[in-house]
Write a structure and sequence with these properties.
Elements: H1 3-8, H2 15-18, H3 26-41, E1 44-48, E2 50-53, H4 82-94, E3 99-102, H5 112-125, E4 130-133, H6 136-146, H7 150-160, E5 164-165, H8 175-181, H9 188-200, E6 204-211, H10 217-233, E7 243-251, H11 267-280, E8 286-287, H12 291-294, H13 296-302, E9 309-312, H14 333-342, E10 346-350, E11 356-359
Parallel strand pairs: 1-9, 1-10, 2-3, 3-4, 5-6, 6-7, 7-8
Antiparallel strand pairs: 10-11
Helix pairs in contact: 3-11, 4-5, 5-7, 6-9
Length: about 350
């Protein structure tokens, strides 16, 4: 019996063994991954109505892959006020957004109270909005800066009205790679501890993986296995009471940063990575093909290879577009629905926790 069949039957393998899945042709992997996604979701492709808000690009940490933070590559620092964030949230909610996604640089200027006041005021201004905020890297930074413990940061976030956490800051869990691309940022073990504690207080989060830079295939599989184990540790599978909602493979963007990767991964490598994620991550419900990094066409193709979600309207995307992605202006609801239908799928608007709101 070959390794793909054994994985599909539930046998466990090491990361180096699972990296052999890349040796299969793309159609074999696609057939296996698509069968798994269709068993769960049929021809549904999920999207949501959301708005990204990035309060500042002034960052105390320096990551070589980042083009967003204010630096020699991006000499345009800015900081938003709480009132500005609230105004954007209100305007987006009036335009139909049901989620506001607040992720920022590691600001040396904002106080601890600033963050908690911001979240509480956003929820007070728009109680109906789902507030997704603070990557584990930001939580770790607040812990390091103010010495309060990441558990207190998370619990204060929950009290302030944060509903779920995004999956950013994971990058690649291998520490040797992390030392090269994001030295000084949250460690892989601490990233996982932070999400596990968030899950323990009944909250959901996402998990990302930045790929297509200096990492190996084995590094990607090691990353996925650590996430699968963390999900098992939380004893959460397809629950709305704490755990990972979705895995999001983020394609590295090559412009305006210091990592200097000359050759991007091929289209086959990208699609195989998404298919393998669906095959390996059986206990994480959703695989998101994030159109902001993959581009619309690849994100749609990925729905045939295990993915079941594209993210949402975004409205204004600043982090990936700073590195060359064509995502700055977001995408209209009408265009997302059109693209999904044109690709032969059924568009389903979801909320932030993947409850289905309407079939389009």
């Amino acid at each position: 019996m070959d390794i793909l069949d054994q994985v599909l039957q539930g046998r466990e393998f090491s990361a180096s063994e699972l990296a052999r899945l890349y040796e299969y042709d793309i159609f074999t992997l696609g057939q296996a991954a698509n069968a798994l996604r269709e068993k769960k979701y049929g021809k549904k492709v999920f999207f949501n109505m959301n708005r990204h808000i990035n309060p500042t690009n002034i960052c105390a940490d320096v990551c070589k892959f980042c083009a967003f933070s204010a630096s020699r590559k991006n000499p345009n620092p800015y900081e938003m006020t709480i009132d500005e964030i609230i105004a954007q949230t209100i305007a987006s909610h009036k335009n139909g957004a049901k989620e506001v996604h607040i992720v920022s640089a590691h600001s040396p200027n904002y106080s601890y109270e600033w963050y908690m006041t911001c979240f509480a005021e956003v929820k007070r201004a728009v109680p109906q909005i789902h507030l997704k905020a603070m990557t584990a890297a930001e939580v770790d930074y607040l812990d390091r800066k103010f010495g309060v413990g990441y558990q207190k940061v998370l619990e204060d976030m929950a009290r302030a009205g944060v509903d779920s956490m995004p999956g950013g800051g994971a990058e690649i869990f291998d520490e040797k790679v992390r030392r090269h691309i994001c030295s000084g940022k949250v460690s892989s073990s601490r990233w996982l501890e932070i999400h596990t504690h968030w899950h323990s207080i009944g909250k959901m989060s996402n998990a990302t993986m930045l790929f297509g830079h200096i990492e190996s295939r084995e590094h990607r599989l090691d990353h996925m296995l650590r996430l699968a184990n963390a999900q098992c540790d939380s004893q959460i599978v397809e629950s709305k009471n704490g755990g990972f909602n979705a895995f999001i493979p983020l394609l590295y963007q090559r412009d305006n940063n210091y990592l200097n990767v000359q050759t991007p991964p091929s289209g086959q490598e990208i699609i195989k990575t998404i298919a393998i994620a669906r095959i390996v991550l059986t206990n994480i419900p959703h695989i998101k093909a994030y159109w902001a990094t993959l581009g619309t066409n690849v994100a749609l193709l990925a729905q045939e290879f295990g993915a079941d979600d594209m993210d949402g309207t975004i409205e204004l995307e600043s982090i990936q577009s700073a590195a060359g992605a064509k995502s700055k202006g977001g995408m209209s609801e009408e265009m997302i629905i059109h693209h999904i239908k044109d690709a032969g799928f059924t568009p389903v608007e979801r909320d932030s926790l993947y409850n289905e709101l309407r079939v389009c």
